[in-house]
């Protein structure tokens, strides 16, 4: 076992404890215990695994990560989902451990979802994670985007879905823009805010915006063309938006929006904007009729269109 580099026990739902391994695992780089619902603790002998790069103990019954994790200088990926053990607890054993994160300078991906974290639980010295590019804090309890995240200048992916957020104030977002200047993917799905501030569009590298199932959302500002993908499925209160310049946007079950816009006119405008694009895209329209200006008309469930020879 001394040469072992990868150990994946994911989905071993009947595994009660980590296997007893007498040999040292000094070369271990990847340990995946996700879905091992009955495992309650990590063995102390993992302290010797100084070269560990990936650790996933999501959906275990581990309530408090051992402190030696935060001394793993080579750790690049750390994943924990507290849905099974922390989400509904009054006290949160995870929050006091978060200041120790700043010592993981090599960390590139961090998942702390459904850990019952509040906005004040995210320490300001999280900015010490200078290599972090992907952060998933979905399923926690934040009023708005935690201000302490603004020091993560290299962050490209931020997921804050289902966090009960009810405000994205203009002043707050304005102060975040400079700190999150590398952000490419922002997922705010399943939150409770009514509107999105226009200053959000100043995230100069943003390409994906997820707002699906924000059921209180009533309107959206015009998004720049660089936002190539927007998801607003299930935004049942949404009445107005201007996403036509996005290469891909999806608005399934946005009934008020469908009532308020001329979907066919919007589709024509979308076609015109991307007439010369070579990107593949899908179209879903409200109603049950094929527009008259479609050259291919058929009542069956599919249509075969002959293409000209090159």
UniProtKB/TrEMBL annotation:
PROSITE patterns: LRR
Pfam families documented for this protein: LRR_1, LRR_8
Domain of life according to the entry: Eukaryota
Transcription regulation recorded as keyword: no
SUPFAM superfamilies for the chain: L domain-like (SSF52058)
Repeat found in the keyword field: yes
UniProtKB keywords: Leucine-rich repeat, Repeat
PANTHER family, A to Z: (RAPE) HYPOTHETICAL PROTEIN, LEUCINE RICH REPEAT CONTAINING PROTEIN
Name assigned to this protein: Uncharacterized protein
Organism, scientific name: Gossypium darwinii (Darwin's cotton)
């Amino acid at each position: 076992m001394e040469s072992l580099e990868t150990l994946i026990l994911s989905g071993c739902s009947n595994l009660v404890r980590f296997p007893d391994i007498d040999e040292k695992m000094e070369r271990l780089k990847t340990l995946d215990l996700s879905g091992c619902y009955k495992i309650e603790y990590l063995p102390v002998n993992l302290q010797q695994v100084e070269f560990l790069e990936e650790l996933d103990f999501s959906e275990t019954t581990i309530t408090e990560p051992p402190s030696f994790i935060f001394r793993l200088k080579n750790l690049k990926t750390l994943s924990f989902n507290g849905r099974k053990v922390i989400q509904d607890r009054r006290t949160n054993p995870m929050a006091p451990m978060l200041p120790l994160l700043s010592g993981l300078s090599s960390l590139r991906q961090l998942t702390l979802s459904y850990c019952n974290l509040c906005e004040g639980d995210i320490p300001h010295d999280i900015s010490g994670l200078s290599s972090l590019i992907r952060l998933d804090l979905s399923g926690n309890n934040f009023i708005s985007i935690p201000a302490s995240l603004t020091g993560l200048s290299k962050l490209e992916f931020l997921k804050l879905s289902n966090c009960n957020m009810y405000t994205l104030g203009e002043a707050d977002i304005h102060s975040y823009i400079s700190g999150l200047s590398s952000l490419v993917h922002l997922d705010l799905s399943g939150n409770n805010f009514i509107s999105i501030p226009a200053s959000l569009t100043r995230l100069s590298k943003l390409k994906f915006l997820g707002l699906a199932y924000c059921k209180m959302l009533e309107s959206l500002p015009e998004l720049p063309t660089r936002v190539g993908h927007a998801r607003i499925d299930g935004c049942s209160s949404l009445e107005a938006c201007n996403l036509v310049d996005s290469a891909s946007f999806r608005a399934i079950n946005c009934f008020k929006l469908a009532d308020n816009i001329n979907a066919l006119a919007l589709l024509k405008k979308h076609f015109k904007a991307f007439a010369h694009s070579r990107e593949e895209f899908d179209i879903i329209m409200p109603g049950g009729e094929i527009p008259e200006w479609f050259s291919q008309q058929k009542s069956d469930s599919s249509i075969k269109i002959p293409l000209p020879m090159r």
